[in-house]
Amino acid sequence: MGRFTEVLRRVEGTLPEVLEAAVGVGAPGAGAAGGPPEHTVEYSRSARGGERSCELLLRLTSRCNQDCPFCSAPPPHAEPSLPAVMKFLDKALPRLPRPMVTLTGGEPTLQRDLSLFLSEVRALGFAIKLDTNGSRPEVLDALLERGLVDALAMDLKAPRPRYAEYSGVSVDLDAIERSICCIRESASEYEFRTTVAPGLGVPDLEAMAEWIRGARRYVLQPFRVPAEKGLVDPSWAERDSLSPATLREAWTKIAPLVRGGGVRA
Ligand code: SF4
Q1: Which of 156, 185, 198, 199 is the most exposed place for a label (fewest CB within 10 A)?
Q2: Are 154 and 135 in contact (CB under 8 A)?
Q3: Is the distance from the beta carbon of residue 69 to the nearest atom of ligand 1 less than 6 Å?
């Protein structure tokens, strides 16, 4: 059994069998048993507001231009060929309850030929969500202008003065600013979100909410170390972070600054 199927089995109890046939026929090359390269595709299911939603996560690249110490993305891995991923999506489509893909990473806007790939994914009938760190506003702008993205989720790592500390690199804050503006102006569905990493306090959360004041949706994600995954800097796993209860309390101060959102369970 390929690694891909194992991942699916772990994440989701029933749909893997539904998708298994798709894995076996025409799935992107390189992986065991003809499956996609390790880490390329994951399937997750969540329940929001009583409604169950399904996501096919595509990790086309593990490259990232940030180096967040608390990052739990998979280690560097081979990038799949985009035509092979398309072939996989084509086969998987009829078996998916909801034709939607989420592009994640790494930073997916670093992927070459992204707009061409997304136009083809769109032509197959998929809705497209993009997760981004907001460092490449020109790419977001072009994708939104061409109507290639239905929803965007942008990470806000920290308030401006602490951005480098939490992204692990010297970030161009103007680029982050331009991404925030472009998403707010042009995306029909979006959220800004913060993983409340160790060391971030309630004043930091308030400063970030102030930064995006009036945004449609802001979500706080409690910091958790995912099972079976390491962090870029393992010492961060031992550090204290705000509890979900504290975040819910903090949210009562933040809520008036934005139009929606909350603390993700
Ligand atoms: S958490 Fe940071 S380093 Fe990891 S993928 Fe996201 S932006 Fe890149």
Answers
A1: 185
A2: no
A3: no
Instruction: Judge whether 134 and 179 are in contact, CB under 8 Å.
Output: yes
Query: What pLDDT digit, counting tens, does each position of 70-99 carry?
Result: 998 888 888 888 888 888 888 888 877 778
Report whether residue 106 contacts ligand 1, using a CB cutoff of 6 Å.
yes
Number of domains in the chain: 1
CA-to-CA distance for 214 and 190, rounded, in angstroms? 13
Q: What pLDDT digit, counting tens, does each position of 8-19 carry?
A: 434 444 445 555
Closest CA to 25 of 103, 100, 83, 89: 89
* pLDDT (0 to 100) of residue 93: 84
Atom of ligand 1 nearest to the CA of 135: 7
Q: Which tokens go with 133?
A: 């760190």
Between the alpha carbon of residue 30 and those of residues 38, 101, 182, 192, the distances in Å are: 8, 21, 37, 34
pTM above 0.85, yes or no: yes
Task: Work out the average pLDDT over 107-132.
Answer: 94
Strand ranges across the sheet with 189-196: 41-48, 51-59, 100-104, 127-132, 151-155, 189-196, 218-222, 261-263
Tell me how far the alpha carbon of residue 140 lies from the centroid of ligand 1, in angstroms.
17
Instruction: Residue 250: give the domain boundaries.
Output: 2-263
* Residue 116 belongs to domain with CATH number: 3.20.20.70
Instruction: Tell me the one-letter amino acid at 220.
Output: L
Mean pLDDT across 145-158: 97
Residue with tokens 């939603």: 53
CA-to-CA distance for 159 and 152, rounded, in angstroms? 20
